[in-house]
């Protein structure tokens, strides 16, 4: 597997320390500091290593905030029924047409590279003879990130190898573990994170901060609630969600404020790197200063890459404030006999300035919906209705009329679609875990136009990794591509 990197761990750590972003880290390391010999000799150096892993996740090639074909929220929205590509022949079109191959999908390699570095960091911190005052923070963050990355791996690829060491002799012979076992590992890591992390948010120097850009104990609980839900452990999902919802430090926020650094709804977000080249990619994908009105021959694709699908637009009920707050409209004005054409764009990230937005990875509204779904499966109808109505009320909607388990699960699915659209792959994963992806995509695919096959719900593994580790078997439908 590509977790056996061609660079040494120490060499990578040297790079990330010397290029760390001040938004995450103010380091006192001298120029030319050699991590190869001193990676974990102090809190400053150990914290720099962990900070570097965060930065690699939110860089231009990062999985959650990145550009091109890496940004999972963006590409999975295209891949399913959330957005429509406005261009042809580029990476967006490849995902939109569901014609991905192992040559243009490399999340497997990206995620395993990060897991390898996390494993090396956990080993280095645990084996260090230095007195690390913030050892619990560094380890807790590593366990959280490893769980987070495995969550994405198993939801993109299904059964995946479980690498929990940096030993290449072990990693190079791993076979794919069943998804049930992967969730056991994810939840084990999140329990470790809960035990190690503070209830406060901490910065790269171990100091308490109001910024919610590094996970704390409650972020780990929220992620555990999500993992338990996906693993269909309804009672545990509810318990974890309760712990977060009952903490008054987290509150549902005004719809216009949710994606800002000040929002009290955030459990965990990522600060954008303060450079002109790495601002909010979501802003560039969907907004980018496109005018509200275009005069032919001006077209939306001059400004943005994608537009919202009809499926997303249908998820909003009349009077839904999420539609007015989170969707922008641009009209191509009528010309001659050609009528006006309206386009709708996600408007969750409204500013390109890094300091004005955070990329939100986990927030309280999702935790309410997780608890609602868990309660529905437990036949706690009254509790489920309460949670659904909390989300509906914030959206300016009246109470739900659903009263049965089946109708409530349908309502929750609709609320998840309207609440979480284009966020972090949620729609793609929801369709798969609830068994609805084939029925939805068989209708959507011809409009792209393309053909949907059931095997497409899992993505292809890089053939080079299969050659390197013969114990790994390609996902069905992809042959040797």
Describe it.
The structure is a single chain. The chain is mainly α. The protein has a domain at 1-69 and 104-209: Alpha Horseshoe (Serine Threonine Protein Phosphatase 5, Tetratricopeptide repeat). It is built from 20 helices and 9 strands. It has helices at residues 9-18, 35-38, 43-58, 72-79, 91-96, 107-127, 135-157, 168-171, 179-196, 217-230, 234-245, 281-286, 310-314, 321-326, 364-377, 381-394, 405-420, 426-433, 437-444, 463-468, and strands spanning 83-85, 201-202, 208-209, 266-271, 293-294, 306-308, 327-332, 341-346, 358-363. The strands form 4 sheets. The chain has a 3-stranded mixed sheet. Strands 1-6 form a two-stranded antiparallel sheet. It has a two-stranded antiparallel ribbon with strand order 2-3. Helix 1 crosses helix 3. The longest helix is centred in the first third of the chain and has 23 residues, at 135-157. The chain starts with 8 loop residues before the first helix and ends in a 13-residue tail after the last helix. Residues 3-37 and 274-278 have low confidence and may be disordered.
> Structural class, judged by helices and strands?
mainly alpha
Average pLDDT number:
88
CATH topology of the domain at 1-69 and 104-209: Serine Threonine Protein Phosphatase 5, Tetratricopeptide repeat
Report the radius of gyration as a whole number of Å.
22 Å
Shape: globular
Q: Distance N terminus to C terminus?
A: 16 Å
Tell me the name of the CATH class of the domain at 1-69 and 104-209: Mainly Alpha
Strand content: 5-15%
How many E-type strands? 9
Largest sheet: 3 strands, mixed
Number of distinct helices: 20
Q: Give the ordered list of helices and strands.
A: HHHHEHHHHHEEHHEHEEHHEEEHHHHHH
Strands of the widest sheet, in order across it, are 5-7-8
Unreliable runs: 3-37, 274-278
* Known CATH architecture of the domain at 1-69 and 104-209: Alpha Horseshoe
Helix content: 40-55%
